[in-house]
C-alpha cells in the first residue's frame, strides 16, 4: 500500500460460533487484547444463538494482526462438528467484517480485508470468502447468499466452481468450516422482542419489514417462478434491512433478528415502529428490543428526538435525556440493563484515561482554575461562561414548551431549544480545546533549538500552535455571540416566569465574548500582522463592540417585564 495509515482507524466485528463457554471466549478475546495498537470495545455472547459478537478498533495493520490471531485461536478451540445454535453460521469464525472509522476510505479498507483473508487462509488453514465491498463477484456480495446451506451444506458447496473460496483450498475443513471476510458500512445488529413463542409468526413480521421481502405466491398458494425457474420476490417495507425470525430459549420468546445496513436510509426508530405496526397487524405485540454489539450515538439521538416529537415535547434536551427516551421507547432494557457507556461506540472510543475539564465537578473545576497551574485559564473560563448562557437560554425554551396553556406552541420552543443545545455542546468542547491549545504552545516551546534545522522546525511548530490558540477563543466568541439571539427571543416570547434567566444568559454571553476576545488579542502577539491572524483580529474586534448592544437589548426587555 502507498501510505502508512498511521492515523487511520478501522473497526473489526468478528462473530465467533461460541456463546456459552466463557473460557473459550476469553481465550479468543485475549488474543485481541494482547495485540499492540488495538482496543477491545465489546464482547457480546448469546447463549441461544451460541455466538459471540466482538468489537475492537485500531490501526488497520494492527487490526488485521489481531483478527488473524483471534480467528486462528477460534479455529483451534471451536469444533463446528458439535456446534448448534439459532443463528445461521458456516464456521468457527463465521464472519469478520472491517469497517472504516476515520482516516481511511472504503476502497483502502477493502485492501486490508483482502490482506486479512490471505493471512487467515495461509496461517490458520481456513478457507475464506470475501463479501460486501470486498466481494470478487456480485453474487458474493450478500452474506446470506454466501452462507446459504450453512456449515452442514458447506462440504457440497465448497467444491462447486462458482463457490470456490477466494483464499484457501476448495476442501471442507470439518472442524473450522469457512470464514467470510469483507469491508462494509457500519451495521446495527438489532433484535425486536415479540409476545409469542412462534418462529413462524416472527418470520412473518421479518418478511414484512425486510427489503428482500418474501417469495410471491400464486392463487394456488404455491411460490411463483420466473421464466427461468427463479424465485419471484415481493419486496418488503424497509430498505437496507435484513431480517429473520427465531425463538430464543434463553428468554422464552421469539424475536425478529435484524441487520440494519444503513441507518440513514432507514433509521433505527423506523425499524422499531414498523415492526410494532406489522406485529400488531398479525395479532402480536412488540414488548421491547435489544442491540447486539455497539451502536452509533446518532442512531439513539435521532430515535430520542423522534419519540419526543411524537409526544409533542421539545427535542432540545441533553444527549443523556435523548438516549434515555430512546431506551425506554424501544424497550432496549427489557432483557437486561442498557448502559450507554458500554453500548455507544463513540463513548467506548473515548480515552478513559484522559482528564477532561468538563468531566470534573464544578468544585474541582474551580479549584483547578484557582491553582498555580496556568491552565485552565481565561479562555476556558470564557467558554464555560458561554456554555452557561446557552444552557440558560435553552432552559427557558424547554420550560416554555411545557408551560400550561402553551401546548400549541411546543414546536416553536423546541425549534429554539434544539439549536441551543448545539451551542451548549460546542462551548463545552471549547473549554477543553482552549487548554489543549495552550498545551500545544508549551509543547512547541519545548522542542530542541540547537542547529538551524531544529530552530526552523521549532519556529514553525510554535507558529502553528499559536495560530490554533488564536482560533479557539475566536470560535468561542462566535458561538457565544449566537447566544444573544436565543436569549433575546426567550426574553421576548418565552415563559415570563423565566425572563430573568434569559437576562442572565445574555450577561454570560457578554462575559464569554469579551473574555475570549482578550485571549485572541494576547495570543496574537508577534503574529498580529500575519494575514490570517490579522483577519481574525478585525472580526473579533467588531464582535467585541457589537456584543454590548446585544446584551443591552436583552437587558431592556427583561427590565421592562419585571418592573
Characterize the structure shown.
The chain is an alpha+beta fold and 563 residues long. The chain has 17 helices and 13 strands. It has helices at residues 22-33, 60-77, 106-124, 143-147, 150-158, 199-209, 268-281, 297-310, 319-330, 340-343, 345-349, 362-370, 378-401, 410-445, 452-493, 499-524, 531-561; strands at residues 9-12, 15-16, 38-46, 51-58, 93-102, 127-132, 178-183, 188-194, 214-215, 233-234, 241-248, 253-260, 286-292. Strand 3 and strand 4 (51-58) form a beta hairpin. Helix 6 packs across helix 7 (268-281), helix 13 packs parallel to helix 15 and helix 15 runs antiparallel to helix 16 (499-524). The longest helix is centred in the C-terminal third of the chain and has 42 residues, at 452-493. The termini are far apart.
Brief overview:
Helix content is 52%, strand content 14%. By secondary structure, it is an alpha+beta fold. The protein has 3 domains: 175 residues, Formiminotransferase-cyclodeaminase, Chain B, domain 1; 162 residues, Alpha-Beta Plaits; 205 residues, Four Helix Bundle (Hemerythrin (Met), subunit A) (Up-down Bundle), CATH 1.20.120.
Portion in helices: 40-55%
Instruction: Give the percentage of residues in beta strands.
Output: 5-15%
Poorly predicted runs are: none
* Euclidean distance between termini CA atoms: 72 Å
- How many domains, in number, for the residues? 3
Q: What pattern of helices and strands is seen along the backbone?
A: EEHEEHEHEHHEEHEEEEHEHHHHHHHHHH
Described by strand count, sense and barrel closure, the largest sheet is: 7 strands, mixed
**Radius of gyration over all CA atoms, rounded:** 28 Å
CATH-derived architecture of the largest domain: Up-down Bundle
What number is the mean pLDDT?
94
How many helices? The count is 17
Principal-axis shape: globular
Structural class: alpha+beta
